[in-house]
């Protein structure tokens, strides 16, 4: 056994999160794609079967009340809240991230008020956020200005209505400085909108602590909610009374069953709701969140950094110099929970890795992504992934 493999064994033995792995359905594949689709928590199939057979099959319409379906968006929002540093009553679950980006961004421009006619958007953003920002800008009569997150403090001005940023870059894994960027946006009188898809469940976000205005995120990455599980919208409590959703559906009406012709929004986070929630995937998500029982985000973050450090060290040892280049920053303060390596023929390399039991993913044109979900990925996984990468890149 190599020195690195021995160290991996010791690190796994000392890992306080190691027992959490048994809460997931896993096999002998090294699964490093939890930044795209989290693994299946073991309790989810049974819960989903119960929702389908009993709550739907037997109780039918009664379940909207008796099984708590109607209030699931707020209830599950409150379950996610501590994972992103939010007090209860500020998060509602539902719709996709894309739809919530739209609600948040148009809502942000409406909050910013008269005389502000510009939206700043992360130039390196995940594409859907950029597409929606472009449409939101056209709809609200704003100019859209792409800037890198580092440029925001200089670019934000008394013209700026809203600033849409990704907390971590989906390609490189770079973590952006949410506290200081949020403060800069606030100092200019603009409204901040953060996309937490690549950080919620992987590291502390501190929404309340840092005064974030609006935030969105998906739940199928580090929150393991399942394919297409609903996203969430955070509206800071102090803004809720003024939050004017561009998608005012009957579910966010103050009296949804009053069936009134005119819209009057409910108070609080549920103002972010639109139409009938997607109950099956929403309740699968609720069950999936039970894996967090007794787990702190701080412990997850500590293990995530240790894992990505160790993986990079193993890559340095197993992959001959010059064959891959890490796009992921060395500094912990700038690192999310994934490692991105650039190499020629990355698509072919990832295919071969997957064939050999190491699952990451490929992002056009030349990036290998390896996501580390500390709840179920261990140090031996990191060592094996790097070793197999070395074998693929330099066949014996
Ligand atoms: C994954 C991801 C999305 C996905 O949006 P969907 O509407 O769920 O498809 C959006 N933004 C970012 C930053 C992401 O990483």
TrEMBL record:
Function noted in UniProt: Catalyzes the cleavage of L-kynurenine (L-Kyn) and L-3-hydroxykynurenine (L-3OHKyn) into anthranilic acid (AA) and 3-hydroxyanthranilic acid (3-OHAA), respectively.
InterPro entries named among the record's database cross-references: Kynureninase (IPR010111), PyrdxlP-dep_Trfase (IPR015424), PyrdxlP-dep_Trfase_major (IPR015421), PyrdxlP-dep_Trfase_small (IPR015422)
Family: Belongs to the kynureninase family.
Binding residue positions for pyridoxal 5'-phosphate: 97-98, 126-129, 195, 198, 220, 250, 276
Keywords associated with the record: Hydrolase, Pyridine nucleotide biosynthesis, Pyridoxal phosphate
The name this protein goes by in its record: Kynureninase
Originating species: Streptomyces spiralis
GO cellular component: cytoplasm
Keyword Chaperone among record annotations: no
Annotated pathway: Amino-acid degradation; L-kynurenine degradation; L-alanine and anthranilate from L-kynurenine: step 1/1; Cofactor biosynthesis; NAD(+) biosynthesis; quinolinate from L-kynurenine: step 2/3
Annotated Pfam families: KYNU_C
Subunit structure as annotated in this protein's UniProt entry: Homodimer.
Cofactors: pyridoxal 5'-phosphate
């Amino acid at each position: 056994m190599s020195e690195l493999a021995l160290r991996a064994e010791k690190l796994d033995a000392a890992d306080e999160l190691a027992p959490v792995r048994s809460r997931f359905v896993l096999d002998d594949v090294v699964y490093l794609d939890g930044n795209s689709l989290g693994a299946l928590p073991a309790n989810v199939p049974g819960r989903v079967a119960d929702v389908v057979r009993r709550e739907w099959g037997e109780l039918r319409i009664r379940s909207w009340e008796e099984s708590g379906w109607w209030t699931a968006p707020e209830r599950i929002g409150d379950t996610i809240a501590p994972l992103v540093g939010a007090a209860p009553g500020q998060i509602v679950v539902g719709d996709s991230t894309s739809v919530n980006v739209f609600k948040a961004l148009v809502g942000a421009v409406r909050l910013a008020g008269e005389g502000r006619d510009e939206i700043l958007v992360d130039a390196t953003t995940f594409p859907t956020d950029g597409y929606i920002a472009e449409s939101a800008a056209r709809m609200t009569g704003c100019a859209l200005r792409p800037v890198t997150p580092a440029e925001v403090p200089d670019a934000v001005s008394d013209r700026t209505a809203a600033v849409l940023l990704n907390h971590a870059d989906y390609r490189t894994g770079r973590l952006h400085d949410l506290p200081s960027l949020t403060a800069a946006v606030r100092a200019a009188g603009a409204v901040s909108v953060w996309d937490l898809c690549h950080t919620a469940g992987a590291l502390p976000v501190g929404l309340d602590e840092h005064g974030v205005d609006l935030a969105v995120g998906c739940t199928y990455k580090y929150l393991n909610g399942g394919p297409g599980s609903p996203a969430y919208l955070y509206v800071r409590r102090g803004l809720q009374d003024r939050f004017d959703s561009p998608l005012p559906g009957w579910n966010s009406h103050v009296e949804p069953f009053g069936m009134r012709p005119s819209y009057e929004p409910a108070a609080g986070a549920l103002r972010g709701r639109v139409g009938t929630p997607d109950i099956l995937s929403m309740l699968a998500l609720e069950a999936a969140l039970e894996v967090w029982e007794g787990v702190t985000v701080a412990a997850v973050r500590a293990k995530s950094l240790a894992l990505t450090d160790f993986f990079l060290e193993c890559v340095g040892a197993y992959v001959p110099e010059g064959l891959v280049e890490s796009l992921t920053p060395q500094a912990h303060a700038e690192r999310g929970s994934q490692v991105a390596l650039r190499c020629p023929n990355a698509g072919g390399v990832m295919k071969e890795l997957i064939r050999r039991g190491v699952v990451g993913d490929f992002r056009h044109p030349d990036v290998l992504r390896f996501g580390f979900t500390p709840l179920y990925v261990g140090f031996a996984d990191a060592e094996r992934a790097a070793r197999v990468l070395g074998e693929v890149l330099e066949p014996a």
